[in-house]
Sequence to fold (443 residues):
Amino acid sequence: MAASVLAGLAGAAGPAFASRDPLPWRNWSGGQVAYPAGRFAPDSEAALVDWLRAGSGPVRPVGAGHSFTALVPTDGHLLVLDKLSGLLGHDPATLRATFGAGTRLSDMGAPLERVGQASFILPDIDRQTLAGAISTGTHGTGLTLHSLSGYATRLRLVTARGEVIDLSEDADPDRFRAACVSLGALGIITRIEMQNRAPYRLRVRNWAQRIDEVLEDFEASARAHRHFEMFPLTHSDYALVLAIDETDAPVNHPPPSPEEAAAFDAAMRKWLEVPPGERRPLINGMAEQIEPTEAVDVSYRILSNVRNNRFNEMEYAVPREDGARCLREILATIAERKIDVVFPLEYRYVKGDDLWLSMDEGGDRAAISVHRSAAFDYRPLFDAVEPIFWKYGGRPHWGKLHTLGAAELSRLYPRFDDFRALRAELDPEGRLLNDHLRSLFGT
Ligand SMILES: Cc1cc2nc3c(=O)[nH]c(=O)nc-3n(C[C@H](O)[C@H](O)[C@H](O)COP(=O)(O)OP(=O)(O)OC[C@H]3O[C@@H](n4cnc5c(N)ncnc54)[C@H](O)[C@@H]3O)c2cc1C
Fold:
């Protein structure tokens, strides 16, 4: 075992590396585990192409392993793109920049700032790889802001047979729109060009407010702020609210207080000691004590957070106009059924796009997430909530837990069958499929 671990470490630093031992792989939450036959970490696109052309077994590309669904597990080979990372080029005229696929989102902000650019958005955390994030339609918050996939302008795909394809809106709009959210099912993405903007500073404000009040004004608030979202506290009348806007104010960003985070964790543990039906006064009382906070910093230091508590998550994107009703029904169901959960929900808007498998395809969506600590069984909560999402025409986040298969998904996505046909054309042997993708695509 020690030898395998050392071999793995060597792979992280040395040239193109292939391991043969079944080192276990697990995702961020620990809910997905696999024993791949090996790992291949190419140090160049050419090495990747040669490796794919020389082999024939199943492969799955992996990013940072932050998806909750079984997109990555394989008993074939894992393809690790960590060495194809970093800023590869930029254009000061168009404010576009190209990154290696394995670049962590957290490693993009500073290099972009040095060349006079900044990302339009980032998700709640920034440990994901760029390719992994766009492959599932990862998004942030904002009525005027797309998911990260919506800012991709060009990408390079290496098919399972080792063919290299450059895709862009201009050159091949259909295949480009399919590849922008493609779950690692069309090929291996090696580089991505993103549309950026000039660097900017943001002011974030957090406070606690009654859920009914926030929902009543949500449309106006979402229009008034660049980013506006809330984290409703289950079994309570309150939500934590977050508004972010551009500012010229000087940087003033106190480091996150470990004491405050520990106090919130301790409070959540205390709530768990009280039966769910009796928690409301306790949680309301705590929410009423929460002091508003404020911080100003460059955009990429404000938009993402650090999440140390491991959890599992289900998220669906429902049409924006149905978001508030759907959220209210979920909160009422959790309360009526006394479901034992203390993790806050998350409620945010994402701007619509025209990418084939984007959750936001065809119009703006409200993304609603429910979380359950990784220490507990998520099924009682997720099983109760998922049918409510279906009622409102929700589309599941590809990276977050859901139970839908090809039959339901083909009704939710107008271009689903086109995607399936393109997948079969680019990977006729199905090398990139695993059990989860087979169930998603009905292959
Ligand atoms: C704590 C936490 C917070 C999160 N917050 C948000 C959020 O705010 N908003 C949101 O939308 N999502 C969020 N997510 C979900 C997460 O952003 C997505 O699941 C994302 O896909 C994970 O990226 P990754 O690099 O870990 O990719 P992985 O999970 O490793 O892989 C995701 C998919 O990308 C494919 N892939 C990876 N690399 C390549 C490549 N080079 N070529 C082709 N395919 C590839 C994989 O095969 C897989 O299908 C969060 C997840 C966690 C754990």
